[in-house]
Amino acid sequence: MTLNRREFLLKAAALSGAGALFMMPPDLRALASTGAAGTTGRAGGMARPVILPDARKVDSRLGIDSCIWNWRSDADPNGARPANYYEASLSEWPSFASLPGDLTCDVVVVGGGLLGASTALHLAEAGVDVVLVEKDNLGSAASGRNGGQMTPGLARWKASAVAESLPPDEAKRLWRFVSVEAMELVDQIAARYDLDCDRKRGHVTAAILSAHMGALVADADARRALGDGNVSIVGPNELQEYVRSDNYRGGAIDAIGGQIHPLALLRGLAFGLVELGGRVYEGTEVMSVKEAVDTTVVTTPFGRIKARRAVVLAVHASTFRFVPGHSTTLPFFTYVGVTPPLPTDLRDLMPADLPVYDTQLQIDYYRAVRNNRLLFGGEGTGSSWSVKEVNRYLRKRINAVFPQLANPELEYAWGGVCDMTLHGAADCRRSGGKVPVYMVHGWSGHGVAQTVRIGKAISDDVTGRNDDFGMLTHIDHAELPLGRHLAPVAIPLMKSALGVMSVLKPGSLISF
Predict the structure, then answer these.
(1) Which residues pair with 334 in a beta bridge?
(2) Which of 108, 383, 460, 474 has the least CB density, counted as fewest CB within 10 Å?
(3) Cα torsion at 148, 334, 111, 43 (round to 10°)?
(4) Rounded to 5 degrees, what are φ and ψ at 432?
(5) How would you class 90 by CB atoms within 10 Å of its CB: exposed for 0-12, middle for 13-18, buried for 19 or more?
(6) What's the CA gap between 173 and 178, in Å, rounded?
(7) What DSSP letter does each residue of 33-102 carry, written as one string?
C-alpha cells in the first residue's frame, strides 16, 4: 500500500514556523523578436520543432528563475548559462514578442508550460480567441526540465487510492481520464500536427525489495478493477529482459506509460497553436488577475488583457501568487542528469528500451536517450542543491544501478521546482464568477501526459462540451497552515519520517 503524506505534513505545518522558500526574480534575458509579429505574438516562418541526432553545445535562450540552474561539463562557469539537454537537442526555436499593449480576447492563458499550451491549443481548435502569456519563455519551468517519463495516474494518486476514494463508476471514469485518455491524447496531437517527440510506449516499475512485490500486485489488481488491464507483473528473472541490474527483485510492466522529449512536445503544442492563429507573448509577467462583472482582467507591465470567457492559471508552482487563502501545496526541488555517449551499448543494459522507476523511498528514474546517452533523475529537496552535490548524488546512483558502466561522468545536469499536495493528487479549481478563473497545481512530480489531458478538459469546460474538469474539482485537498514557507523545514523532516516508516513497514511502497 502507498503511504499517505497528509497526516505527517499537517503535524509539521502546525509545529514549524521557520524556513521560507524565496523565489528569486528571473534572470535578465534577451528576448529576441526575430520574426515576431508585434501585435499577434506569432513567430513568422515557424517550423515544427526537430529533435537533433545529438545535443549541441549551446547557451540557453530560456529565461529561468535564479533559484534553479543548468550545468554542462565543459561550460564556462562564469559565462552564459548553458542549455540543458532538452534545449540543446532541439533545432533553433523562435522567441515571441512581449505583449504590445491592451487587448481583449475570449480566454487568457497564463503560463507557457504543457498545461497552458495544451489548454490554449484545444481552445484554438474549438474556435476560441485565445491569448497565452509567459513571464519567461515557453518551457522555462518544469515542462522543459522534467524527466520526460509518462505514467498513469493523477500525479502520485495510485489506482488503489482512486478506487478507495470514489464510487466505482466515478473511480473508473477518473482512472481512464488520467491513464488511457491522457496517453492517447498525446499521441493524437503528435499525429495531428506531425510532431517528432521521441515518444516510446511502456515503462517499468522495478522492486527494490521482494516485499514490494505484494504492493505492485495489489496496484495491478486495483487497475484491473478500474478497467485497466495494461500492467503485468514479472519476477526477477523475467525483469532481466527489461533492465539488467542486480538491484531489483521483480517489477511491473506498464504497457500504456512511456517516455517523451517534453520540450519537443511543448513546442509542438505551441506550433499547433500558432498555426491556428493563437497569440503567444513571452517576457510578459502577470501582476494580477481580477474578476469584474463581465470580464476578468489580467494585468501585466505592458498592458491589460480583458477576458470575455475565462482565465486559466497554468503556472503550477506560482499559483499561490494569485490564489487567496492557505496553500494546498509545498514546493520541492528535483534534479536530472545526462551522461555523454556511453561506450557500453545501453541496449545491453535496457534491452526493451523502456524507462524505469524503482520503489525505494527516494526513487531513481532513468531512460536511454539519443546517441546512447543515459538520462538519470531523482532526489527531492526543500532547498536547491548545488551542482557539485547533484553530480555527486546522481553519479553515485548510476553506479549503484549499473556498475557495468564503471563510474560514468555527466555531461548535463539541471534542477527544477515541482509542487506537491498532501495526498498526491493535483489540485484543480474553478472560480464561480461569470468569467471564471481555472487553476491546476500540485503535480507531485508526475504530470507530463496528465497536464495535456487536463488542458483539454479546461477547454471542454469553457466551451460546454463536457464536465471532465468538474470531476477533478471534486477531489478534496487539505490546506497547509504555513503554505510554501514550510518547505525547507518540512521536506527534510518528512523524508526522515518516511524513511523510518519504510523500515517499520518494509512491504509498503513509500516514496517521496
Answers:
(1) 380, 416
(2) 474
(3) -50
(4) -100, 10
(5) buried
(6) 9
(7) -TTEETTTTEETT-----B-SS----B-----BTTS-EEETTS-TTSSPBP-HHHHTB------PPP-S-
**pTM for the complete prediction?**
0.89
Q: Which residues contact 136 (CB under 8 A, 6 or more apart)?
A: 26, 29, 62, 63, 64, 65, 112, 282, 283
Residue written as grid cell 491546476: 440
Residue indicated by cell numbers 510506449: 201
Please provide residue 279's backbone torsions phi and psi, each rounded to the nearest 5 degrees: -100, 135
**C-alpha cell recorded at residue 121:** 491549443
Q: Are the C-beta atoms of residues 177 and 471 closer than 8 Å to each other?
A: yes
DSSP 136: S
Q: How far apart are CA 315 and CA 484, in angstroms?
A: 15
Distance separating alpha carbons of residues 373 and 476, to the nearest angstrom: 41
Residue 154: is its pLDDT beyond 70? yes
DSSP 245-301: -TT-S-EEEEEEEEE--HHHHHHHHHHHHHHTT-EEE-S----EEEE-SS-EEEEET
**Structural domains in the chain?**
1-25+62-199+255-344+366-512 (3.50.50.60)
**Interval 214-266: pLDDT, tens:** 999 999 999 999 999 999 999 999 999 999 999 999 999 999 989 999 999 99
Q: Which of 224, 158, 121 is CA-nearest to residue 424?
A: 158
Task: Give the cell for residue 71.
Answer: 550545468
Mean pLDDT of the chain: 87
pLDDT tens-place string over residues 382-433: 788 999 999 999 999 999 999 999 889 999 999 998 888 878 889 999 999 8
The candidate with the shortest Cα–Cα distance to 221, out of 174, 263, 164, is 164
Length of the chain: 512
Distance, CA of 400 to CA of 362 (rounded, Å): 14
Grid cell at residue 450: 496528465
Of 439, 143, 455, 470, the C-alpha closest to 313 is 439
Amino acid (one-letter) located at 199: R
Q: Coil, strand, or helix at residue 12?
A: helix
Strands 279-281 and 231-234: unpaired
CA distance 343 to 370: 14
Pairing relationship of beta strands 36-37 and 296-300 according to DSSP bridges: unpaired
